[in-house]
Write a structure and sequence with these properties.
Helix content: 40-55%
Distance between the termini: 37 Å
Largest sheet: 5 strands, mixed
CATH architecture of the largest domain: 2-Layer Sandwich
Shape: globular
CATH superfamily of the largest domain: ATPase, nucleotide binding domain
Number of helices: 9
Number of domains: 2
CATH class of the largest domain: Alpha Beta
Order of helices and strands: HEEEEEHEHEHEEEHHHEHEH
Radius of gyration: 18 Å
Strand content: 25-35%
Structural class: alpha/beta
């Protein structure tokens, strides 16, 4: 089974368009706008697309309101989403009304509702809910292979065959564990370790420290994809931003591993695209 060769190009094109729009601060297109709300363990990200799913803008901030895919600080989560919403509305000169929110695969219905309630509490009308890996694949357009979303607290996995999802899973282990290792090694706070991870000049050092954690992530992935004929794994999520992350995974999995140029924004953009698709059918 081979990966759709256009998937990586498609993701880079869409996310590249989003980052250009963020930099240019261009006027939004006419017509309805839709927002994707991604409550991550390390970052809360809002992305905006037009009625055709074309990228318009995005905003994000570091936050610790979610743990292992579950909202643990509802009030702060609502406040952060409301603040990001206001920032985008000011930049776009438009009110953002409709949105979609996401949740890790396999999340219970009550926890899914909590993600929805956060977005609604911030002033959105939620017209779609989507699992995070499915959202990522709306950007990738993968038909065969595995999509792995490595976030701050969990690793989500989706296996696709002929365009159909045949297996999903989500397990604890992600970027938060990287930060704990870095913090321990340097005797610094968790927040300082998070900042250190953003410094590309230190990625080689950090990669050496967190390789055992990446190996644990690879073990999780292997356990879930082993029953299927997966040749290529596409990795997304903020944790995958670490330079060399995909090379370590590739060595451990003994499969081709690829990642988009800006893995943090893939899933949030897919969430907004899900809202746009739902809006077409309203």
């Amino acid at each position: 089974m081979t990966m759709n060769t256009n998937s990586l190009e498609r993701a880079n094109r869409l996310v590249g368009a989003l980052t250009r729009r963020m930099a240019e601060r261009a006027n939004p297109p006419a017509g309805p706008l839709y927002t994707g709300i991604d409550l991550g363990t390390a970052y809360v990200v809002l992305t905006v697309v037009d009625g055709r799913g074309n990228p318009v803008d995005a905003a994000y901030t570091f936050a610790q309101v979610v743990r292992d895919g579950l909202v643990v600080d509802f009030v702060s989560a609502v406040s952060i989403v409301r603040t990001l919403k206001a920032q985008l509305e000011e930049r776009l000169g438009r009110e953002l009304l409709y949105g979609a929110a996401a949740y890790p695969p396999g999340t219970g219905s009550r926890d899914v509702q909590t993600h929805q309630y956060v977005a609604e509490g911030a002033g959105f009308e939620i017209i779609a809910m989507v699992d995070e890996v499915d959202a990522a694949n709306r950007v990738l357009g993968l038909t065969n292979g595995a999509v792995v979303d490595v976030g701050g607290g969990t690793t989500g996995i989706s296996v696709l065959q002929n365009g159909q999802v045949v297996h999903t899973a989500d397990e604890p282990t992600g970027g938060t564990h990287f930060s704990l290792v870095v913090a321990g090694a340097h005797q610094i706070s968790f927040e300082e370790a998070e900042e250190m991870k953003k410094d590309a000049a230190r990625h080689r050092e950090i990669l050496r420290l967190v390789t055992p954690v990446i190996q644990k992530v690879s073990t999780i992935i292997e356990r879930h994809i082993a029953p299927y004929d997966v040749e290529t794994v596409c990795v997304v999520g903020g944790t995958a931003k670490l330079t060399g992350f995909e090379q370590v995974l590739e060595k451990e999995l003994r499969r081709t591993v690829v990642k988009p140029a800006e893995p943090l924004l893939v899933t949030p953009l897919g969430i907004a695209m899900a809202a746009s698709e739902a809006g077409e059918h309203r």
